[in-house]
Every structure is written in structure tokens, then in C-alpha cells.
Amino acid sequence: MAGELILIVEDNEKNRKLVRDVLQFKGYQTVETETGEEAVHLARTLRPALILMDIQLPGIDGIAALARLRAEPETRAIPVIAVTASAMTHNRQKIMASGFDGYQSKPIQVKNFLQAVEQMLARGRGAGGAT
Predict the structure, then answer these.
(1) CATH code: domain of residue 121
(2) Is residue 66 part of a domain?
(3) 85 Cβ neighbours under 8 A, 6+ residues apart
(4) Is 96 inside a domain boundary?
(5) In a domain, 23, yes or no
(6) pLDDT tens digit sequence for 71-125
């Protein structure tokens, strides 16, 4: 079901534009930021249905931003997918162990990326998530 608000946290303009364009083409609403600190603020105020979080960010990284989101009752249940160029197996294991709900490697493969987004949103709706 398109129309949900998705927060894109990505400091690379080209990557951010690609993700935004793909999501908006499918009918999702998007809001964007380049920093983990701003991501936490936007998540608190806007309560997106899903957050797509880069790991390597200026200021606090994606893992630290996720920890802040999970520590707060109002943002704890928002699903967060890591979207990162750290594709090595040990990096993926570390990222998933830190509490992310999903993982997508960059550069994104549009079909797989959209499928992961749709599955995560469906799971969130089924659990009475923040939609």
C-alpha cells in the first residue's frame, strides 16, 4: 500500500536522489536528511512508517542513531532498514546485531529494494506499527 511516509537518511546526494525517486515513483511520501541527529529528530516529530538508514553518516553514525531511536518509546517500534555499502558478511552481521529490521546493500537493486520496503511496511502494519 503506497502513500506511507518513509524517512531517508543518506549523506550522499546521488544515493538519496535514487532512493527518493524510486519510492516516490511507487507512490510513497518521503522526507530526507543527511545526519543521524536530524533523523532522530524527524522520526520523533513525523513518525514515519519506515526509516532507511545509511550507516556511514556525518556526526553520529546510523548505528548510534538507531540506538537513540530504540531508546525512546515513541520511536522504538518504527522499522529501520540499513542501506549501506558495507556489504562484507561480518559488517552485515554487526549491523543486524545492532537492531536493524532489515539490510540492503548499495548500490541498491531497485526490484529487491522495493520488495524489502514493501515487506517491511506490511509487517509494520500487521503489528500495528507506526503508520
Answers:
(1) 3.40.50.2300
(2) yes
(3) 56, 105, 106
(4) yes
(5) yes
(6) 999 999 999 999 998 767 778 899 999 999 999 999 999 999 999 999 999 987 7
CA dist 81 and 122 (Å) reads 14
Using the structure block, give the residue that is written with the C-alpha cell 516529530. 45
Total domains in the fold of the chain? 1
Residue listed under C-alpha cell 503489528:
127
131 found inside a domain? no
The span from the CA of 108 to the CA of 12, in Å, is: 13
Q: 43 — phi, psi (to 5°)?
A: -65, -40
User: What's the pLDDT tens digit per position in 5-33?
Assistant: 999 999 999 999 999 999 999 999 999 99
Q: What is the pLDDT of residue 87?
A: 65
Q: Which DSSP string do the residues of 26-71 spell out, in sequence order?
A: TT-EEEEESSHHHHHHHHHHH--SEEEE-SS-SSS-HHHHHHHHHH
Name the pTM for this structure: 0.93
What range does the domain containing 25 cover?
5-126
| CB neighbour list of residue 16: distance below 8 Å, 6 or more residues apart | 8, 10, 32, 34
Question: 52-67, pLDDT tens digit by residue?
Answer: 999 999 999 999 999 9
